[in-house]
């Protein structure tokens, strides 16, 4: 769909115009919170100063969303018409994909090629997919006695608040907007602090494509102020969130302490990649290491734990180390960069804290070299391979950086216990050529997604989400629409 090689990224870098105001009720408004400095993790450059939403700005956005919802200007459209506008929205994103991709790369550091060819492609596909689904949904007429007619219909929930992270900022956003909007809801979106500008542009593109004023409002702001105000708002019906487990749990409290709004949580992960004896070993280890380091390791599904038979440990470390070397960070605007920078210097300090603690404890590890010509003020961090036991913090906690924990196991039973032995349950990976083992082992893996002999495969038709500490509810697929609708029963007594 997109080709990053056609764009002179460095030449257009300085021409990017970052939106800086809040987008509420179809117009730019000034925020009354403390302004937010947008700093590029590429090189520490100041990109823009963004207005942020205070609690009263959030209230204004929610009121605008409520008015739009009650007016029926969107919720009352024929589904087919909504679908057509969603398709126009997708097309508008498609037409501005290069600008959005560059903005994301400058905001959070991923290679611009990935931002365009992976992220923007996913966003356009997602919006199109939900747009196409609009008039293909059906309600139910269950069988009842002859003197009655019962209708079971899906009604839009009303006002949806979406709070999203920075790692795949627009993909995560599209996964919320697609199903929420197609079902007829109005939305207030709170992007992450690091990726506010691209989210604001997305909101404007939706409006320009015909999504009416007030139906999609974008309120950049600090999590503890704007995010919290949304989560505590008395007139928000549904809160959908992707982010860390800690914040997810705080949102449940905010909901309980306000109006008991329903909350959907897509949280962190600690994906185990279990390589069984009979697997294509080199391919499995290589794919797992790539799956750990991809997007600088800032991925909820990052294959951050590699479980290998103990007698193959040295072989696994050698392959993973070679992958680590090949995925060292580089200038994100360079087309051949396998990785860019982490999201911020603060995040780099957090990631390197894990590595320093492990080093100090004498952990066996390999640290790749970043290229020498990277700007000192950039948030670059080279991949790390560590050999640890299952209780080590690198094997238990989400690092959200390119750090692979290699864990040897003695038996398949032990491998299963280690794989399930964290608080998380988002995704698991299994490598085996044996059909029986593929089925039986994957049934016992406690995670919302299991990939067998592959990593990160998916489709818009397939739901995505976790269990245990990784949250509940599913993004993508028609299942996601269930989160943003209420099942309504209408019983008609026939005389
Ligand atoms: P984060 O939880 O710190 O922030 C996510 C969002 O929550 C941001 O918009 C932030 O401003 C907001 N926020 C922070 N504190 C808040 C509060 N008190 N009240 C309301 N909102 C608040 O997460 P992050 O560091 O931006 O993202 C990384 C996390 O996201 C990782 O844990 C990762 O695994 C997770 N993630 C999960 C998935 C998934 O689908 N399961 C996908 C991507 C990322």
Summarize the structure.
With 495 residues, the chain is an alpha/beta fold. It is built from 16 helices and 19 strands. The N and C termini lie far apart (58 Å).
Topology:
Blueprint: H1 9-12, E1 22-24, E2 27-29, E3 36-39, E4 46-50, H2 55-71, H3 79-95, H4 97-108, H5 112-133, E5 148-156, E6 159-163, H6 169-182, E7 186-190, H7 196-208, E8 216-218, H8 223-232, E9 238-242, H9 245-257, E10 262-266, E11 272-275, H10 281-293, E12 305-309, H11 313-326, H12 345-360, E13 364-367, E14 384-387, H13 393-396, E15 403-409, H14 412-419, E16 427-431, H15 435-444, E17 449-452, E18 471-472, H16 479-483, E19 485-493
Parallel strand pairs: 6-7, 6-9, 7-8, 9-10, 11-12, 11-16, 12-15, 14-15, 16-17
Antiparallel strand pairs: 1-2, 3-4, 5-19, 10-18, 13-14
Helix pairs in contact: 2-8, 3-5, 3-7, 4-5, 4-7, 5-6, 10-11
This protein binds nicotinamide-adenine-dinucleotide (NAD).
Query: What structural class is derived from the secondary structure elements?
Result: alpha/beta
Identify the bound ligands.
nicotinamide-adenine-dinucleotide
Number of contiguous helices:
16
Strand order of the largest sheet: 13-14-15-12-11-16-17
The major beta sheet can be summarized as: 7 strands, mixed
Low-confidence parts: none
What is the CA-based Rg, rounded?
A: 23 Å
Morphology: globular
**N/C terminus separation:** 58 Å
Average pLDDT confidence is 97
């Amino acid at each position: 769909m997109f080709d990053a090689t056609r764009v002179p990224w460095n030449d257009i870098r300085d021409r990017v115009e970052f939106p800086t105001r809040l987008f509420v009720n179809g117009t730019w408004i000034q925020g009354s919170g403390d302004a937010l400095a947008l700093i590029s993790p590429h090189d520490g450059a100041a990109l823009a100063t963004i207005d942020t939403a205070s609690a009263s700005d959030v209230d204004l956005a929610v009121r605008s969303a409520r008015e739009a919802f009650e007016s029926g200007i969107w919720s009352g459209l024929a589904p087919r018409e909504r679908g057509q506008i969603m398709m126009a929205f997708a097309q508008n994103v498609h037409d501005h994909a290069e600008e959005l991709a560059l903005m994301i790369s400058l905001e959070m550091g991923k290679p611009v090629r990935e931002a365009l060819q992976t992220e923007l492609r996913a966003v356009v596909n997602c919006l199109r997919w939900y747009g196409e689904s609009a008039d293909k949904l059906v309600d139910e007429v269950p069988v009842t006695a002859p003197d009655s007619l019962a209708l079971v219909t899906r009604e839009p929930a009303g006002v949806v608040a979406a709070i999203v992270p920075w790692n795949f900022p627009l993909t995560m956003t599209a996964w919320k907007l697609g199903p929420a909007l197609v079902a007829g809801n109005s939305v207030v979106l709170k992007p992450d602090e690091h990726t506010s500008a691209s989210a604001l542009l997305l909101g404007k593109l939706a409006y320009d494509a015909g999504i009416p004023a007030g139906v999609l409002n974008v309120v950049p702001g600090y999590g503890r102020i704007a995010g919290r105000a949304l989560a505590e708002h008395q007139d928000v019906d549904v809160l959908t969130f992707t982010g860390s487990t800690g914040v997810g749990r705080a949102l449940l409290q905010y909901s309980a302490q306000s109006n008991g709004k329903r909350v959907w949580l897509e949280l962190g992960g600690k994906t185990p990649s279990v390589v069984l004896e009979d697997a294509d070993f080199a391919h499995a280890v290589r794919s797992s290491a790539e799956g750990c380091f991809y997007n600088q390791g800032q991925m909820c599904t990052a294959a951050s734990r590699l479980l290998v038979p103990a007698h193959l440990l040295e072989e696994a470390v050698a392959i993973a180390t070679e992958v680590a070397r090949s995925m060292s960070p580089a200038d994100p605007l360079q087309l051949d960069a396998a990785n860019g920078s982490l999201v911020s210097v603060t995040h780099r300090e957090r990631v390197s804290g894990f590595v320093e603690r492990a080093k100090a404890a004498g952990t066996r590890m390999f640290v790749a070299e970043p290229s020498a010509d990277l700007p000192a003020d950039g948030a670059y961090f080279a991949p790390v391979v560590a050999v640890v036991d299952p209780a080590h913090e690198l094997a238990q906690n989400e690092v959200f950086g390119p750090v692979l924990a290699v864990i040897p196991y003695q038996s398949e039973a032990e491998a299963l216990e280690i794989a399930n032995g964290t608080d998380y349950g988002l995704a698991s990976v299994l490598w085996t050529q044996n059909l029986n083992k593929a089925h039986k082992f994957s049934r016992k893996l406690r995670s919302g997604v299991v990939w067998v002999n592959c990593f990160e495969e998916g489709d818009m038709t397939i739901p995505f989400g976790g269990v245990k500490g990784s949250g509940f509810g599913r993004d993508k697929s028609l299942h996601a629409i269930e989160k943003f609708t209420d099942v309504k029963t209408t019983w008609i007594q026939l005389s």
